Amino acid sequence: MEDRNKRALALVKYHSYASGALGLIPVPGADVAAVSAAQLNMIHKLAKLYGVEFAQERTRAIVVALIGGVMPGALSGSVLGSAVKAVPFLGTALGMAVMPALSLAATQALGRVFIQHFETGGTLLDFDTDAMREHFRREFEQAKAENPEASVDAPQMEEPAVKKAV
Questions:
Q1: What is the pLDDT of residues 36-80, one digit of tens each?
Q2: Terminal CA-to-CA distance of the chain, rounded, Å?
Q3: Which alpha helices (DSSP H) does 84-148 contain, by range?
Q4: Which of 52, 87, 101, 108 is 20 to 30 Å from the Cα of 118, by its Cα?
Q5: Taking the CA of residue 31 as centre, how many other CA atoms within 13 Å lie in the half-sphere pointing to its CB?
Q6: In Å, what is the CA distance from 55 to each residue of 17, 32, 45, 106?
């Protein structure tokens, strides 16, 4: 039982970092599509690990309901983060600063919610998005706290610019 939970957490970690990396795709819209595909892939693998029948359309509807219902600001931020990449240079940099952070935290939160649901014997057919929305919100906030790079605030420079040697 514990071994399965460890494997599930490893799947979530892998897909969370993959989603963060996919958020770096500079093409507007392609990043959102790639992150969505990674999230569906993660849930598919979790369902397989827990012996739960996977239905892609049902899962997609659950993910949209959870993310859209809990983080409309962040969701619009991810769409804006993707769209702003169309602006040459500065837009690309700003979009690439926002998307990886949102993608990582949202994927990690989704994974944790589905693990908890599957651990208690749940399936995709009995997944209650209304009941799980607050759980997802807490997991999203925790994921942002655990991953400081996942803060969706304005990007900050980590170090001051390097001074020229005299």
A1: 999 999 999 999 999 999 999 999 999 988 988 765 554 444 544
A2: 62
A3: 90-119, 129-146
A4: 101
A5: 29
A6: 24, 21, 12, 20
